[in-house]
Amino acid sequence: KEGFYVDNLVTSVNDSTELEQLKSQSIEIMKEGAFELRCWASNDSKEDQDKQMVLGLSWDVVSDELSCKLPANTDCTQEKPVTKRVLLSVINSVYDPIGFTAPALLLPKLLMQEAWRGKIGWDEVLPVELEHKYRLWAKTMHFFSKCSISRRLFVENCDDFTLHIFTDASAYAYATCAFLRCEFKGQVTVKLIAAKARLAPMKKSTIPRLELLGAALGARLAETVDSILRTASKTYFWCDSMVVLSWIKKKEPWNTFVGNRVKEIRDLTNIDDWRHVPGEVNPADLATRCCDWSDLLQSKWWEGPSWLYNDEESWPCSEVSETPDETFLERRKTVVTNLATGNEVRFEDRFLYFSSYKKILRMTAYVLRFCNNIKRNSPKLVNSLSCEEIQKAEETLIKIMQSEWPSEIREKYKDTIQFFEENGILKVQTRLILCQDPEDFTHPTVLPDHPLLERL
């Protein structure tokens, strides 16, 4: 059931006897649903076959290896101009769902990104520098057909499998690759089984952030591989960035970008499975830097690091012994807010250090002038204080004093004294309203009984 993809059955058996049994049973079962299974192919030597297409990949049934189909549009002759349309055609013509050609496919993708950055049209010829890089890369395309991986992953009867995920990043790209390590009767086999590579965003980012993107990509790849194989007894994650390992292992309030990806990594993996690997022995490094098909074929990309063939005791030291300074640059800033819970600033606290009422008035007037002058559309007040400013300052002081007058006093005398407000100032109406005296005399302002006012 799990071997079917639409109408294609792809599976493995141990020998020819199991193959014949599987074939006959599958045909009978599918006949019940009126489906006909035909065009069988295998790596059995009895079959007179050379190569078969399996889910878009080329399968050499003799060597039992999988490879990608050679693109037909990689002509690097001088007569054919190199445009952005040509680059896109070449990039999309390589169908590689496994990702084992990712390091060599990075260069045309980078050239495509540079073309977009330079706002080059689809049919405009690329600048000489970009065109030269593409032609050098395309001249090695004859090595493309030699890039292949073994179809068979498991040694017969082997039951000790470990999955190793490597992640890395550069200023150009971030990548991850997965190796399956099998140990059977003292023999260790390491095979590349999957890889992913992504271009770095056009918006410039820091290397630690790109390394974190690579780690998140590795976590997703591990989940996909593990859901398909279901055989690995343990999964190891290898990263050469101490900053990223610190982000993953430390429980700190990281900023949004780092926090979201760290959360995803922690959800998909066990943080104790993350280990440090030196950059010079990290196989994922190749997928973050440009190489041609010749370099890819001769690299250690296919077999993994040499230390992976040794016992675990000889693997790189994985302890995160120190925390780099760059780690806490992504720590979310904490805002501390202090709330007043009852210790209010009263009138005497504001003006305790003034020796005269006149100085209080002038200080208040200057504060009000400053508030006026910082307003965008208000006329600026300069020179000496005017009478209007002094009067407004006094009204402001009266309002402050009255605001601290206990409301109980006003309620106590409301039946015997008639209060009213004028411009926000509380006044009292007296029996002298019929006199021809000034209004300030007939309607005096109410001031609280305050020792500071008595002193001033």
From TrEMBL:
Name the UniProt record assigns to this protein: Uncharacterized protein
Organism from which the protein derives: Araneus ventricosus
Pfam families: Peptidase_A17
